[in-house]
Design brief:
The chain is of the alpha+beta class and 157 residues long. The chain contains four helices and eight strands. The protein has one domain. The chain is 36% helix and 16% strand. Strands 2-1-5 form a three-stranded mixed beta sheet, covered by helices on one side. A hairpin with a 5-residue loop joins strand 1 and strand 2.
Amino acid sequence: MAKGFITLENGENFSVRWTGYDEILRIAIKELFFLDNGYKLSEWLKTRVPDENGDESGVAFWNESNEMIFRDIDLRGLTKPNRQLFWEAIENGAAKLSEFGEQYSMLNPIVMHDLMKMHQASKDNVEIIDEDAKYIITKNDFIEKVGPDWLYIKSDE
């Protein structure tokens, strides 16, 4: 049963078992280390997976601050540069997973292949109609801002 969800830019959901979700994010975290400007996003992603002391089963877990963290991420809530960094890290990780297999990650390569296939079919054309400090509004959705680097400049009306 799927307990981890990644919402792509077109609003489609990629769903996977919680262990796969955690491993996808851990791969992104590893690969962001090698990318320019990837540090802040990798640090934020670390807060989205349990540490070695955390409860690792199910759709959610409790973090060190005693907050419940759900295993879902809406990539539309990231800034466009952070979405690009995320996908570059995932692409690099997919190549390494394909080449090194279990030496690189325990994630089944089919899971990464399926995620990449959905991504390639998705367009990154998130058009923000309006925003405030916490949310963005697109033509079809009301999305919470996530990750680093969001700036909110209140427009005069």
